[in-house]
């Protein structure tokens, strides 16, 4: 599951063929300010007057996006596919993420000066391409008129780590983008990568040595792993508050419930909304039910969930309608009925709001409680609206040398990863589980959860993962959201502060992923609290040292106590959305769950 929530790569789209109405310019060399030439393939309507230019800046090789180029060049735009420096046919050296803002500025201004351009330039792209758009916007090129960042990675927020917890998938991505040509065969070899993840996990080798285990000795890997916090290395890749204040153009942000770069997309969106930008009211947001790849090419069924026919937005047309509106004085896209569009599962409906904060009508607190038996689904604690009055604390043990949990994981390509409850059925004693009572009526939960938990550990550091799922009346399970935290970064992602063993500390888990779910009548919520012990994440050996350098020799067993008494109330906050009488009468009782194909990268 962890990989399926990560930043992906590659491109999949409905086929669009080039025809005689389109002409191509191959091998266009575009000079950057330092003398390096980036390579572009440009498509445009044959014989057309000057038009707006849409360009994509990608490390995944321009040819991967010919479907997009064909569509837009057949629909009244010039579309340019540009290889990042050091990739494909572009010059220079590829330094992932660090050159895109400056290069993006130079590309905007070069395209604006070409005879085929009417002086208006915009961008297209998701994931790395979404990051490119934000970095280019930060540089304020005069001829950039709008951006449509999709599934936008935000360095230090969701890539190359989440809340300062790294993942070995990073090296898989670096191997995919190593050299100048695509390495798609190697990148998509699930068996190879899962075996390498397991080798790192089973041998307790230091995380930083993973490049040696894989066989791709990477200076990039070593450099990135050496910066586990949001320090001076990463901070230049974030947009400063005063830079958000200067944004003055319409923006369309697109992300998904199960998009691994959703945290990044929301980081940009929220920071823009909190700024003094004159164009905040022109920033629109779409949150669909999709995974990472689905934000560009929606799939109806992913991870065992059927999203329904309304989820299948024509992204080509939506982008074109947006560009027509912002660049050609067209009409506002019909789909954008308000500034925020979000999709509710399993009622499979689009709903709208003026802002993220306007969606929920109340915040409901559910307090953690138990009788001291909370270590599996059959002996669980409770989530209740009644505040605790003096209940016992709950305990679990996390032994980093115990490899049973990781060895028990299914192959990471499991097509039903959103509905597979196997991890909760056996935590090997290494976690806590809490359930609500069955819901008396269908209840919409939309937004971001927050967990406040009072915790003591007997080691200077460890990691925590919190997962929330819906358990349907028939026992089926639907993953909703999760959060991840490293204890030493509980107060700040820029500065570590080790834990005093035995100290009871209040932790706030406030970076859950956004979701929208109509929890059915008779369903329950399940909260699972544990320390991650998986092949998909960097292992914390709890010593308080440099995590990337820790091995079995550094391992310390963590005894974790979660308090939920009157003096230490631990509780989960739910954003509840009031539903009309008509909506309530139409509410489905259960979620459709179907087998699905393996999700795209």
Strand content: 25-35%
* Number of DSSP helical runs: 14
**Using only CA atoms, what is the Rg?**
24 Å
Structural class: alpha+beta
Mean pLDDT: 93
Which regions are unreliable across 5 or more consecutive residues at pLDDT < 50?
1-7, 595-601
Q: Say how many strands there are.
A: 27
Q: What percent of the residues sit in helical stretches (DSSP H or I)?
A: 10-25%
First-to-last CA distance: 13 Å
Tell me about the largest β-sheet.
13 strands, mixed
Overall shape: it is globular
Give a verbal description of the structure.
This protein has 601 residues and is an alpha+beta fold. Helices cover 19% and strands 27% of the residues. It contains 14 helices and 27 strands. The strands form five sheets. Strands 15, 16, 17, 18, 19, 20, 21, 22, 23, 24, 25, 26 and 27 form a 13-stranded mixed sheet that branches. A six-stranded mixed sheet has the order 1-2-4-3-5-6, with helices on both faces. Strands 9-10-13-14 form a four-stranded mixed sheet, with helices on one face. Helix 2 crosses helix 3 (128-138). The longest helix is centred in the N-terminal third of the chain and has 14 residues, at 190-203.
